[in-house]
Amino acid sequence: MNSTSTFEPTSESPSESPSESQKGAEPMTRQGFVASPVTGADAQTPISAPIIAQCNDIDLVYRVRLFRDRTLRDIFVSLSRDPLGFLLKKKDRLHVLRKVSLNIYRGDRIGILGFNGAGKTSLCRCFANVYTPNSGKIKVFGRTRAVFDTSVGIYPELTGRENAEILAQFMYPDVSDSERKQLILEALEFSELGNFVDAPFKTYSNGMQARLCLSIISCRSPDLLILDEVFDGADKFFREKVSHRIVQLIENSGAVMFVSHSPEQVDRICNRVIVIHDGLIAFDGPKDDGIKYFNSLKPRATIG
């Protein structure tokens, strides 16, 4: 039977306990390990490194609306067999994050690995204050900049330059007008779009769109930087160019959460790896061990 579904966060308190397979697997967590601020290094730094962000026992549950191909006859039969059960049946829910606790220290460049639907982006959106967990607490000490979609805030009818001005207003509200103007000029030059900066955005190729957005996004470093698949869409030449700029942005930020499906990117950029599996932090530690652990996992269905 075919079905489709939509997800939305629910305010209900989660009541489900982890599945039996989750109970049997002891998560591998970091004990007293603080990653080196040097990109790509696994050396440990003193445990006294200041905390940039933390979460304690957060749960996140989505209400899942399933649209099944059911006939009136099916509904009538179900209603006649068990009227009360049909009307009061439990709603389908997706328990995305389960009692997740995490400390992020200054100097951490955290690569977040996991299969689709594991909860990587949802965890980052909780730290970015996009989602509110059903339970638990999150604290961020300092400015946060999160990039989940490079096309957010884009108006196709406007020119690249006009969209750059809008993006800069959105991404850097705390800088002066003159400083923002200089920032936009530098980003447009870096994008190498030439005269196309004054052409409508809707006429750009996917690669050109990514060039403009990534150039604006990568201008300034915050205390907590969250990057979710930021290299998607850019052409090969510009991807290599912007990757160096992103690496500089990462190095100058207080701490970084870097979501990627590429262990190679994580190996090059990060010094700590978190593997999220079935809504749990299954691993938290040095990047080499984390990548090896992720490669040993097998994907599983996440809707139960």
How would you summarize what this structure contains?
With 304 residues, the chain is of the alpha/beta class. The chain has a domain at 3-13 and 34-143 and 222-295: Rossmann fold (3-Layer(aba) Sandwich).
Would you give an account of this structure?
The chain has helices at 20-24, 72-81, 83-87, 120-127, 160-171, 177-191, 206-217, 236-252, 263-269, 287-295, and strands spanning 3-9, 51-68, 93-105, 109-113, 135-140, 144-147, 224-228, 255-259, 272-277, 280-285. It is an alpha/beta fold. The strands form 2 sheets. It has a 6-stranded mixed sheet, sandwiched between helices. Strands 1, 2, 3 and 5 form a 4-stranded antiparallel sheet that branches. The chain has a domain at 3-13 and 34-143 and 222-295: P-loop containing nucleotide triphosphate hydrolases (Rossmann fold, 3-Layer(aba) Sandwich).
What are the salient characteristics of this protein?
single chain; 304 residues; alpha/beta; Rossmann fold; 4-stranded antiparallel β-sheet; 10 helices; disordered N terminus
Query: How much helical structure, as a percent, in the residues?
Result: 25-40%
Low-confidence stretches: 1-8, 11-47
Number of strands: 10
Distance between the termini: 17 Å
If strands are numbered along the chain, what order do they take across the biggest sheet?
6-7-8-4-9-10
Count of runs of 4 or more consecutive helical residues = 10
Write the layout of secondary structure elements.
Blueprint: E1 3-9, H1 20-24, E2 51-68, H2 72-81, H3 83-87, E3 93-105, E4 109-113, H4 120-127, E5 135-140, E6 144-147, H5 160-171, H6 177-191, H7 206-217, E7 224-228, H8 236-252, E8 255-259, H9 263-269, E9 272-277, E10 280-285, H10 287-295
